[in-house]
From TrEMBL:
<protein>
    <submittedName>
        <fullName>Uncharacterized protein</fullName>
    </submittedName>
</protein>
Amino acid sequence: MYREDYYKFSHYFLPYSLFKFGNLIIKRILEDKDGFIKNLKTSWRNIELEKSFVRSNPPSFEIDNIEINKAKSLIVVKMPEAKEEKEALYIGIGFNKKNDIRYFTYEIGKGIHFEDVYFLCEWTKELKHINHGVYSNKDIGNFIGDIKALF
């Protein structure tokens, strides 16, 4: 079942907001993670739906900050309630001291035999989609490890 709010949040709302207000958003996440999660839930409820009249409750949004090295960090947003095709289980916000931002998702998909697969994707500042690979499991280690290699 396609859930429009899940798709729009991870594919439009969050990347657009990050590329427009990235420095402020990252600062907010690092200073007040719980307050930021509260803001995400409010934003979720305000996503404009076009095809569906049914809105899902916002996910629980778990956030971790991972230092890649002294100059680069990765904020991981987990959406444990994601379960349908095209929904993002994990969102990665990579940034460095120069405030260069990269936005990644680990999306649920379907394989040739309709089995669950997971795609590591990136969204550019122009909101173009790049597919970096397909995985057979939802292991967050794959997501974090490959982003570290790309970043």
